[in-house]
Amino acid sequence: MSLQLLENEQIGTMNSEQKELLTSIKEDANRLLEFTSELLNMTQVESGSIQLEMQATDSIDIINYALNTVKQTADQKQIKIVLEIAENLPKVVADKEKTAWVITNLLTNAIRYSHENSIIIIQAFENNNKIKISVIDNGQGIALEYLDKVFNRYFRVPGINKKGTGLGLSICKEFIDAQGGTTAVTSQLGKGSRFYIELNKVI
């Protein structure tokens, strides 16, 4: 709230140097929030006490929540997020909050590893009585030898100079597994990645 007040020009204007400092503070605060969130979620996973509130929910509601969360980050890199959502998509049986966290994490990673002025695609469609939600980017991609390790705790692809805990994808998988779903990735080095989850639809 304090940062938002500082950004409000009705209170007063800042020079370019002050704006840069404010941006740095916001980025640090967001990293701390992300790190704390991951630690709290990992505590649930490690204790075996993942609390789920399973209910019938619209996939588009989950996706829109995640989109609103990452919009500012995407805008900063001038990344366009394109939706490809099937019509009349059945509802999923899912924990809305945790699934939205998963999609947000996948989108955050896609933005982080994508080039400026690029496109990220979110797809959602029915597939063999499941609802498949994919996040597709055209970023750095992942080498074949690391694909089976990306969901391991604390694993980070060697040679990529990006900050992170190595916990996010592991938590994603744990949350989706706990809901009876699946998490997977396909990727090609230098051409981008497709991370996707599959959840049970309402029958």
Helix count? 5
Let me know the number of strands: 7
Strand order within the widest beta sheet: 2-4-5-7-6
Radius of gyration: 18 Å
User: Main beta sheet: strand number and arrangement?
Assistant: 5 strands, mixed
Element string (H = helix, E = strand)? HHEHEEHEEHEE
Mean pLDDT: 87
Proportion of residues in helical segments: 40-55%
Tertiary shape: globular
Proportion of residues in extended strands: 15-25%
* Low-pLDDT residue spans: none
Structural class: alpha+beta
How do you describe this structure in short?
The protein has helices spanning 2-7, 16-47, 59-76, 96-112, 168-178, and strands spanning 54-57, 80-85, 92-95, 119-127, 130-136, 182-188, 192-200. With 203 residues, it is an alpha+beta fold.
Can you offer a commentary on this structure?
With 203 residues, the chain is an alpha+beta fold. It contains five helices and seven strands.
Name some characteristics of this structure.
about 40% helix; alpha+beta; about 200 residues; 5-stranded mixed beta sheet
